[in-house]
Every structure is written in C-alpha cells, then in structure tokens.
Design goal:
The protein has 528 residues and is α+β, with helices and mostly antiparallel strands. It has 19 helices and 16 strands. It holds the Pfam family HTH_30.
Length: 528
C-alpha cells in the first residue's frame, strides 16, 4: 500500500469511474490539483478559488459551457450534466483557460455529487508526513477489487458507502445506485434483511455468498470487526462463489479495513473536537476569537449564528443519539458550505452551531438566514426532525457571541412551544424570549405567583377545580364566552358560572386592563 496521492482531477475520475463522471473536453493531462467544490449560481459573481471544481447546475449547450469557462478561468474543472455539447469554441476556451469540462451522468443529483466530491477531497486530510504508509479506504477497495477480480464497496454499519473500487460499471444497476447515493437503497437493504443475509453476515466471521435475483449479480460479503464490535462490511459483486483462496484474501482484507476504520474514527473524532473547540472560542468572543476564526477559515464580518437541535433525542441509546447528532451536524455543515465557502459548523454539546456569512442584499439578513435554515430543515425532513434558532446579524467577529446568545434564545422558544421542524429568528420571538428570561429570574429567586392568580391556583389545588384554566381560556378568547367554553369543552352556561366563581374567589376585576395584563403575564411566567 502507498499513501493516497494529492487530490487531482485524474485521481477523482479514477476513484469515481466513468459511471459517474466522464471527460468531455480537457486541456491535456488531468494533473490539475483540486482544492474545493463550488456550486455555480448564474445570479452571483463566481467566487472560485484556484483549483476548484464548479458544479454547473442548470448550464446547457455549448454557449453556456463556454461562458462559464470564461467566468471561472482559475477552476480545475467544470461539471455539466450529460449530454455535454462541445464545439470548436468550447475546445478553444478549454485550451486557453486550462479548465477541463466533465460530463455527469443524468442519474446523479447535484447534492449527491457535491457530497461525494467533498468526501473524496477530505480523504487523507488528517494524514501527516509522520503517518504510516497504510493507504486509504479507496486504495484498499481497489486492492481488494484486484484480488477478487470484482468491483468492491466498503460500507459502515448503517450501509453507507465509505469507499468503492473502480470497475463499478461492470456491476448491476443496484450497485451503481448505491455508489451514486453513497448509501445502499432501502429497498435493497430490506431485500437482504428478508433473505436473512444481513443476520448471517454479522454472525459469521468468514465471508459469505449471497444469491440475488437474476437481474443482479450475486454478492460476496464479509463483516469488518474490531473484537465483537461490527465496524462495517466489504461487498463484492461476483458472478460466482469465491474460491477458497479468494475467500481468505477477503477475510484478510477485512482485518486491514478494520484497522483503517479505527484509525480514521480516532482521527475524525480528534478533528471534530478541534473544530468544536475552535468554533466555541469564536462564539464566546474574547481575545482568542480572531485566531480561532483564522484557523477555521471563516468570515469575520457580517455573519449570523444558527443554533440547531434535534427534537427526537435518543435518550435510551446514548451512542445512537450521539451518532445522530453528529450526522445532523455534518449535514448542516455541508448545507452552509454550499451557501458560502467561509461558513462553518460544529457540534457543541447537543446543539449544532453554524456561522453563516451574509452578503448585503435587498432581503433582510436575519430573514434570509431564517429562509436558509428552513430550506435545510425541509431537506433533512423526517430523517432529522429539528428546530433552528437564528441570531441577529453580527457586523464584526466581536458581536458573534451576541448572535450566538440570540440563536440560543430563539431555539429555546421553539423548544418551549413543543414544535419540530421550525426555524425562527430572534427578532420574531423576542418577547417570548424575554418572558422565558423573566421566568428564569423568578425561579432563581424562588418567587411565586401573588394576588388573584395565587388565590386561584390555591383553590384549584385544594378543591380539584379548573378555575385557572377557565381564566386562561377566557383571556385567550378575548372575552368571547362561546369560543372560550368550546376551548375547554364545557357548555357556555357552565363556563359563565365558573367565570363568576373565579371572580368571587380571586377578587380579579376582569374589566380592568391592568389587572388582565398582570394575570396574563403571571400565567406565562409561572405557568398553570
């Protein structure tokens, strides 16, 4: 094994294979170094760093390709959905700029490709010159492919594709869909589960052979273990059962992959902790904020803080809960990175914080940030039910801590409402947030309700009545007895009697606006 070469166009094409990307026009060799992935927006000025890959969403025809080449002359390549029209003017522009034009299969979504390319570029980021030359998962997948003479995928315990070998175009459509989506489709996973293949795989320490329907190649698979812990699995698309020699090779490969996964997991955990510490320093403000922002490479002006939290926390399974929170944070980081290259996100405790730079525009910055948060929640949908609080715009890095506090307060309001899948800006929930803060002060000072509201609560406790609920319904309905009685599911006459009783017991003057405001605030601060 050798260490993974730098991220070049040639290496990326070799990893992905012609199933996903193909070369439509190239200036020569494909040795250009790739530094990042950028989403093209025709309405914005391209901000493509040297060596970036531009995903040309919506670009069609030779004129569109040529115009983009002229707008992004420092890119390593541009990616256009097939079929790609290439004429003499496009070839001339490719030669002049040195930017390659790549064709993307129509079966792939842009979000999948963006995630796929970023994951390939991230491979080996933690490697240093002192690291052992163990290679990476893609190199391992290619090595196993050569040993077995079959296309290979390496997957984690949840059937997400961690790496894959070349020659995937020799496999069946199910494998191609798996590689493009970086996840085994649910229908295939369900089929394997119904056949008992997954149970057999995770119970066996030796490779197994799995027979599949006639329109698919069979699979040879082995679990990747660390002691009794299942780390993942290796899958090969084969035309016939493996020979004994190749079974031994697959079993040996599983041991090497296990070592690599353990090493990557330790490195990834360390990197995540570092990013979380740096982002926490930025959000706390102070003297170290500027240095931390520089190390993260994030913007220091005109930024907004987002605070996102899952609403279905896994209380019974801490490991599962932590994994879900980390995947949610990774998804948020990817989302904000597509908005601005100097955005960043990290998990701090149970909350995923994102620092989102915002350029001046016709739309209010906070409203735009809320819309971005809503778009993200719509994308993750039922897989990650969550709420997001959005802080006010911070003109400088010194104001980032204020924006973070705003985001925390907005998130708390959403949590207090018991909602899920909602995003709210701080200014939209300002008063509710203030009431929660007042409730905190009252609780810390052990303050309790007083006056008419206190007398109602005491009467309800002693007699099992519901006079406080009757009063709340009356006030919420603006004094409309019919609407209020329907809300508490009693007859209007019964409601009027209760209303008369609560006035007698509490001494509350419902005709006095100041008295109504006082009792309404006590209800919000102290609760029922």
């Amino acid at each position: 094994m050798t260490t993974r070469p730098r991220a070049s166009l040639g290496r990326i094409l070799q990893d992905l294979g012609s199933t996903v990307l193909d070369v439509a026009a190239a200036p020569g060799d494909l040795d250009a170094e790739v530094t990042g992935v950028h989403i093209y927006d025709p309405h914005d000025e391209p901000m493509v760093a040297p060596g970036g890959i531009v995903l040309a969403v919506g670009v069609r025809g030779a004129d569109g390709v040529r115009a983009l080449l002229e707008r992004a002359p420092r890119a390593a390549g541009i990616v256009v959905k097939l079929p790609v029209e290439v004429d003499e003017r496009v070839r001339a522009a490719v030669t002049e700029t040195g930017v390659a034009v790549l064709g993307l299969t129509r079966a792939a979504s842009w979000s999948q490709v963006a995630a796929l390319l970023r994951s390939l570029l991230a491979e080996g980021d933690l490697d240093g010159p002192e690291d052992e030359p163990q290679g990476d998962l893609f190199s391992l997948a290619n090595a196993v492919c050569a040993l077995l003479d079959a296309p290979v995928t390496i997957e984690d315990r949840s059937s997400r594709v961690l790496a894959f070998s070349g020659r995937q175009d020799e496999a069946d459509p199910g494998r191609v869909e798996t590689v493009l989506g970086r996840q085994v489709p649910e229908r295939y996973r369900r089929m394997l589960d119904e056949r008992g293949a997954l149970k057999e795989l995770y119970q066996s320490r030796d490779p197994i052979h799995i027979e599949l329907p006639a329109d698919m190649l069979d699979r040879a698979a082995v679990a990747v273990r660390s002691g009794d812990e299942i780390l993942g699995s290796i899958w090969a698309a084969v035309g016939e059962p493996l020979t004994e020699q190749r079974q031994r090779a697959l079993a040996d490969a599983a041991k090497i992959v296990a070592l690599r996964l353990l090493r990557d997991r330790a490195g990834a955990d360390a990197q995540r902790r570092l990013r979380a510490d740096l982002l926490s320093t930025v959000l706390a403000g102070g003297t170290g904020a500027a240095e931390a922002a520089g190390r993260l490479g994030i913007a220091t002006q005109r930024l907004c803080v987002l605070a996102a939290q899952l609403t279905d926390q896994q209380e019974g399974d801490p490991a599962r809960g932590e994994s879900d929170r980390q995947r949610f944070c990774d998804a948020l980081a990817l989302h904000v990175a597509t908005i601005h290259p100097k955005a960043a996100a990290a998990l701090v405790g149970s909350v995923a914080y994102a620092v989102l730079p915002l350029t001046a525009g016709p739309e209010d910055e906070e409203a735009r940030a809320v819309r971005i948060a809503q778009d993200f929640l719509a994308r993750v949908g039922p897989r990650h039910p969550a709420n997001i609080g959005v802080g006010r715009l911070a003109g400088t890095l010194a104001q980032a801590s204020r924006s973070r506090a705003d985001a925390d307060r907005a998130l708390r309001v959403l949590r207090a409402r018991g909602t899920s899948g909602q995003a709210a800006g701080y200014t939209d929930v300002h008063f509710e947030s203030l009431l929660l803060q007042v409730a905190d002060v009252a609780g810390a000072e052990e303050q309790t309700p007083t006056g008419p509201y206190q007398r109602l609560l005491e009467h309800d406790r002693e007699h099992g009545s519901e006079l406080a609920a009757t009063l709340r319904a009356y006030l919420d309905a603006f004094g409309d007895v019919n609407a209020a009685s329907a809300r508490v599911h009693v007859h209007a006459n019964t409601f009027r009697y209760r209303l008369k009783r609560l006035v007698e017991i509490s001494g509350l003057d419902l005709s006095d606006p100041e008295a109504r405001l006082t009792v309404m605030l006590q209800m919000r601060i102290f609760g029922p």
